[in-house]
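Our preliminary data section would be incomplete without showing what the modeling component actually yields. Below, a chain of 239 amino acids is followed by its predicted structure, encoded as tokens that our downstream tools consume directly.
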Amino acid sequence: MSLQNHTNFNSNTRNIGGPGKLIVFEGGEGSGKTTQLRRSHTWLLHTPFGQQLLQTQKISQILVTREPGGTDLGCEIRQILLHSSTQQPIHPHTELLLYAADRAQHVEAVLRPALAEGALILCDRFTDSTVAYQGYGRGLDLTLIHQLNQIATNGLVPDLTLWLNVDPQLGLTRANHRGNADRMEQNSLDFHHQVQQGFATLAKQHPNRIIEIDASRSEDEVFATIQKVLEEKITRWFA
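Predicted structure:
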């Protein structure tokens, strides 16, 4: 597992704490990341490629999780963050700290134990979302965000991040078709453009970890690209 010191932004250190791998699906609203994560999970479980990894014990399990909401406590935090019925707006700093609290619990209760056992983890959002949404979208101090991410993760960084990039207007149109828009989806179009810029900046800063996927295409076309990337990366990891 990769370790990153957010003080010096060094993402090349390796975590000797476990043999597992962490793959994160990132993207703006309506990018299809959750759908693609589920398809990837199904593909890994039910095709010879993934089954061989399990049968040869190169991985202990294929685990799907998410942020916020990857733990029991996280589910309660998720409800506050995305579906709170309170009429009082959530202050950006409060929002940031709630995401950090969810992440700290998730890392220690789920991610680190699973990685130590050799799991292949597919995670719906992680630290990059906080940088993009709270940093670029809300305009909060990036140094503060990196420090909080460091505390929450204790240096844990994904082995691979798939950034599903879609034009915010198209993404919001897709999201609106689902109905029941959450707090993030209800933000202005300009906010979502800033979020997209945040992801783009991160992709340039971490080209070895973050792979951009054109999510404006059909679901099948996007999945074909993701499948190719996963086959290449996983084969290299466990060869």
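The radius of gyration is 17 Å. Confidence is low (pLDDT under 50) at residues 1-17. Preliminary results of this kind motivate Aim 1 of the renewal.
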